[in-house]
Amino acid sequence: MNASELKQFLDEKHNSYNNPNFIATDPIQIPHGFSDPKNIEISAYLTAQIAWGNRKMIINNARKLMQLLDNNPYDFIQNATINDINHLPDFKHRTFQLPDLKFTLAALQQFYKTHGSLQQFFEQQFTYNQSIKESLIQFRQQLLQTTYPVRTTKHISDVAANSAAKRLNMFLMWMVRNDGCGVHFGLFKGIPASALFLPLDVHTGTVGRKLGLLTRNANDWKAVEEITAALRTFDASDPVKYDFALFSLGVFEKF
Question: For residue 53, what are the domain limits?
């Protein structure tokens, strides 16, 4: 396919998957279970943090996680005591285990006291830096202000060390994009969709290489920049809308 044909192909795939029917098959259904913006952003962040592996398992474990937080994650973050956090029932999603969850909740608690909300932090960071990459670097640094077990650092993507940060980019995609199609939330209004980066994973990377959008072999930050730059040639205002196409081609169509 030439560039024009490829754009048409990706646009058609985007249009076929970007609708509310997508929600029932995707972890984004978890934050869609809430109406309050603070609950949406916290549940979205926690869901994104465990979004790797079997998708059914991700959804089931994210739902269990919300139940541990009394299905009101913002209230839990605001009001839970150290004792409440330390006495949570066991939780495990692959290598993300109870010690990681305890740190994450304690770190979010401190983060909200300092910054007000995830929205406020990311919008301020973007306004100041005009850079999603720098915002993600600062986010990691802020979370690690809370005492942490060494094992937990692997669950907070380090863009400064060339991590693809798939889960954080997915979280921002969920929060920022607002195309009226009902899947993403459009809550972080201070960040333009044009600034987002593709949530690169094994599926989007494989399809991207097959389509000639990505030449780099590793799924790292340099690859994220390369494939996002290629997608910007098709839609500079909203390049990551093509995540619907690339991800669905890989997962649903086994492209």
Answer: 3-251
